[in-house]
Amino acid sequence: MPFTANRRFKSTPRLFVGAEGNYYLSSDGRRILDGMAGLWCVNAGHGHPRIREAIKAQVDGLDYVSCFQMAHPDAFTLASRMVGMLPAGLDHVFFSNSGSEAVDTALKIALAYHRQRGEGGRYRLIGRARGYHGMGFGGLSVAGISRHRRDFGPLLPGTAHLPHTLDLARNAFSRGEPDHGIELADDLERLVQIHDASTIAAVIVEPVAGSTGVLPPPKGYLKRLREICDKHGILLIFDEVISGFGRLGASCAAEAFGVIPDMITCAKGLTNGAVPMGATVVGKHIYDAFMTGPESAIELFHGYTYSGHPLACAAGLATLQVYEEEGLFERARTIASHWEQAAHALKGAPHVIDVRNIGLVAAIEFAPRPGGAGQRSAECAEASYQDGVLVRAGADLIVLSPPLTIEPDEIDRLFGSIRKSLNAIA
């Protein structure tokens, strides 16, 4: 099982047998409030009838067709719908099966783009400390969570990393974007001085670092990165697998922060988690760079058996329609203030040393127990689960990312359960 203590799980398994709206149904018959939207992905709530029916109808018609030298209409319709809701300039879509594949696709496109333009010496890829970009070798190489990388050797050569943006000394208990840290973007200039811009293909960052513990960007940080990339001809990639599709009250973080990258990777909320799907969205300048030579020539030697899978496209189209018709992005913006107040009400609770939030995502960080790093968060998560609330523990953190359909009383219940759990642990 992925990211699981397999032996412990099999001794005391946690099994779900159903889901509806903002709740799971456990195998012992309890309704569990989902504080994680599955795994950052079920933005419209579980079992939405429009999405469910779209998948059923699709499997009754066209169950599968390859997108190698053939296709089906919904793949193009979904790409057009995505482009229509994303910021102007991001206008071509390459479909994959996950966020990990979307990231590896973006990295490969970046390398091939520079080669197409006669700058094949740009091979270096720059990530960021504490970044998470999936589990493919490319994404893992630019990622910056040491425990994820440790067991798998040297990974891809030619990578470098910016520093992370967490600064508890200056920014603890910030609400939204922290005031301090814009200068950390200037470390990209230092990497240019070390490696020379002519060797750097792309920089990839999560606009809001998610899995590492919800690190919103310092004010002005993303804009500064964009300026430095433009200055040196470096592509900027936003990994929006988590932040896309309403999580920040907008179509994506690029829209929310007003900074447009050259590429966006997305997945998760694209299909509401109902069918696996990822996508890499690129700017016209990138697409056009490949559209040279004979029309009969393959422009990009890359792809997956399930790229643009009909069931995933059906789920994606229905999901985007639900977002629009039910105004879920706007709803997320509206309810975010209640979310923020409830999260920061935990300031002063036992063991809490920081609360971070932006949009409908938050993290509560604990002081580590002497000799027992990560124990408090694990115990808090377990106590909350026994109280009927599902949260995610990692390191000394509780991370929260509920469906965009969560109600104010459910927000209060979620944070109330965490407070109750904290009061019960040493």
UniProtKB/TrEMBL annotation:
Keywords, comma-separated and alphabetical: Aminotransferase, Pyridoxal phosphate, Pyruvate, Transferase
The protein's enzyme class: transferase
Gene3D superfamilies reported in the protein's UniProt record: Aspartate Aminotransferase, domain 1 (3.90.1150.10), Type I PLP-dependent aspartate aminotransferase-like (Major domain) (3.40.640.10)
InterPro entries referenced in this protein's UniProt entry, alphabetically: Aminotrans_3, Aminotrans_3_PPA_site, PyrdxlP-dep_Trfase, PyrdxlP-dep_Trfase_major, PyrdxlP-dep_Trfase_small
Pfam family, one: Aminotran_3
Alphabetical GO biological process terms: biotin biosynthetic process
CDD domains: OAT_like (cd00610)
EC number(s) recorded for this UniProt protein: 2.6.1.18
Cofactors required: pyridoxal 5'-phosphate
Transferase keyword on record: yes
GO molecular function, one term: beta-alanine:pyruvate transaminase activity
Record-stated family: Belongs to the class-III pyridoxal-phosphate-dependent aminotransferase family.
Protein name, per record: Omega amino acid--pyruvate aminotransferase
Organism the protein comes from: Bosea thiooxidans
